[in-house]
Amino acid sequence: MEKVYINGLGSISAQNTFDNSEFLNRVEFYTENVIPAIDVNYKAFISPAAARRMAKGIKMGIAASRTALEEANLENVDAIITGTGMGCVRDSEKFLSAILDNDEQYLTPTPFIQSTHNTVGGQIALDIGCKGYNFTYVHGSVSFESALLDALLQIKTHESHSILIGGVDELAPHTIEIHKAVNHIKSEVVEASKLLENKTKGAVFSEGANFFVVSNEKSETSYAEVVDVKLINTLQTDELNTELNTFLEEQNLSIQDLSAVILGCNGDVEFDGFYDVLAENSLKDTPQLYYKHLSGEFHTASSFAFWLAAGVLKSQTIPEAVVLKGGIPSEIKYILLYNQYRGQNHSFNLLKSC
């Protein structure tokens, strides 16, 4: 079957990740529980007139996708596949607020039109003139992995040659207040560098957009090979080690073949135990990395981990800020990504150096 390579990427996050010539050279450690993504110069990608009508999620998606395409030396792709947990939730809030404030009269349709989850994928297609397959997955915290799985299937079955995939989510005021009310966001201020030491409920929330060009052809810009992805809706903690070993065995690999693992622990005392089960058992001798103290938590935060893994494999270096446990191997060949959110939607991703 065809191999799948990451040939370009673009990332907008709470860190300085937009410049692909740097790799977490400057790390921001926040002391906030809700962290906005760092804005870039959107005027370089979107006309000011159009940008005024766009939600932040759309602008992040267009800028990140264009960066990925430019790095892959492509102007267009065969397909665009997007993952998002909440879509353009700011426009959703604007439209619903207008319904209440104006007694369901004199409503501006623009926020409604742009509030749909597939708006980002549609705007990217309009921007680059892509008339091919365009699909958006809204599968909670495996939205990005669902998009990735679709892309792998299409490339491996020769339906597409090059595909733009990505994960994007944005913050919105009312949604933030809801998450705070149900303790999904930590109630007290947390220092990012000590996130996992804070044994309380909830996580630090953020937003971001991470896009990648994947193809069946390796190029000079290739970052890594995507070996496989596996999604599991519900798992018990005592099933994790077995599922991990089964996933690796399907690739004729074992735990010993892993150079590092990237865990999605977010400091939530109720659910970080899932990561502890693997970290203290099957993966106890494997170098362990983490990232949500830098990216924050959101439905497609795992796309930041995908960006991190790709950067590590290409540069053969591991930024000190993401090291959780263990030394840095001399050669980095296989990286495993494991993520879950609030005990559900478990995902295993496996990347390989190329």
Automatic annotation (TrEMBL):
SUPFAM superfamilies: Thiolase-like (SSF53901). Residues 46-216 form the Beta-ketoacyl synthase-like N-terminal domain. GO terms for molecular function: 3-oxoacyl-[acyl-carrier-protein] synthase activity. The keyword NADP does not apply. GO terms for biological process: fatty acid biosynthetic process. The keyword Hydrolase does not apply. Keywords: Transferase. One of its GO terms (cellular component) is cytosol. This is 3-oxoacyl-ACP synthase.
